[in-house]
Design goal:
Elements (H helix, E strand, L loop, with lengths): L1 E3 L2 E8 L4 E6 H7 L8 E3 L2 E5 L3 H11 L3 E8 L10 E2 L4 H9 L7
Length: 106
């Protein structure tokens, strides 16, 4: 995602079954859009699911004066986005997800 003034150039990541719009978490917060647990996050980037979260974000951020441009990138393989942490609008959860790794033994 690139930001040029009030223009946001975002990438929509698609695999054979679904798609996600990659945007900075700070912009999701600025937009005020309510994001479902069907979206993901990694580091400072949110991956907003294409059916409701991405359109909700675009409507909300454009209402704040931004113009969103979307470029699609498709893979025929299963996207690694599916393995990222579930999006959380709770900042303490984001810190936890960004700084701790869980190991499952068994």
């Amino acid at each position: 995602m690139r930001r040029l003034g009030n223009q946001l150039h975002c990438i929509k990541h698609e695999d054979p079954a679904h798609g996600w719009l990659g945007v900075k978490i700070e912009l999701v917060k600025l937009s005020g859009a309510k994001i479902s647990p069907y979206s993901y996050q990694r580091g400072k980037t949110a991956y907003l699911e294409e059916d409701s979260d991405a359109p909700a974000f675009i409507r909300a951020i454009e209402a704040k004066g931004f113009k969103v441009f979307v470029e699609s990138r498709h893979t025929n393989k299963r996207s690694s986005i599916r393995s990222y942490a579930t999006f959380s609008q709770d900042p303490s959860q984001q810190f936890f997800d960004d700084h701790f790794v869980f190991c499952h033994i068994g």
